[in-house]
Amino acid sequence: MTTTQLVRNARDQTGFTGAASRKLKVLVRLDTTMQSARIQVGGTVTIQNLKALYAIARRTNSLVPGMEIVVDLSRAHAGAEALADLQTAVERGCLPEKSDPLHSECRLQVLEPLAA
Fold it and tell me: What is the pTM of this model?
């Protein structure tokens, strides 16, 4: 990794410190081939703000329906109910109807948070 990449990576991570914050911080990274995307989340994911995270996943998925989307909660906190809801979306292969009435295929993967 070059010095420029290290500086860029450090700058990209600055908004994700203080994961205990109730406010969500989200960074979406798309792979150059549009085969996958990573939604990096900071803050605390709750059942109330999960709708916003689903909206971001829906918009990301609309670029190339069915692309793999990794929801990276490794720098976030998440409530048990929010995690269960996300796991249901992963198992079903689509977002909840309230977030995506068309039930588009959505290949979600969730990386575990700091604490549930």
Answer: 0.80
85 sits in which H/E element = helix 80-92
Q: What are phi and psi of 48, to 5 degrees?
A: -75, -40
Q: Which two tokens stand for residue 27?
A: 């960074």
Write down the residue that tokens 């990209």 correspond to: 12
* pLDDT digits 0-9 by tens, 3-59: 333 334 444 554 555 445 678 999 999 999 989 999 999 999 999 999 999 999 999
Sorted by sequence, the CB contacts under 8 Å of residue 45 that are 6+ apart come out as 24, 53, 73, 76, 77, 78, 79, 82, 83, 86, 113
- How many CB atoms sit inside 10 A of residue 59's CB? 10
Q: For residue 27, what are the domain limits?
A: 19-111
Split into its structural domains, the chain has a count of: 1
Residues in the chain: 116
